[in-house]
Write a structure and sequence with these properties.
There is one protein chain. It contains five helices and no strands. 49% of the residues lie in helices and 0% in strands.
Length: 79
């Protein structure tokens, strides 16, 4: 959602190198899909892909222009 928030794209599909495209149309992905599916409780890739698509589209329907503090101001990433 970073490029959408920045106003450089209306939807993540318009930004080639983003996490959205890595999940929806993986190339040589650095994502461990088996691990990700296990963590999120999905039994197969198609279910993960479908849920991810719905999550992103839901986020696009709300004003999501502000960064979320839980992701941008924490010990892991700093402020």
């Amino acid at each position: 959602m970073n490029m959408v928030r920045a106003g450089l794209a209306e939807h993540p599909t318009q930004w080639e190198f983003c996490g959205y495209n890595e999940i929806q149309s993986p190339r040589k992905s650095i994502i461990d899909f088996d691990r990700l599916m296990g963590l999120l409780g999905f039994e197969n890739y198609d279910d993960l892909k479908g849920a991810h698509h719905k999550w992103v589209n839901s986020a696009l329907l709300i004003d999501n222009s502000d960064k979320e503090n839980k992701w941008t101001q924490s010990i892991a990433v700093g402020s």
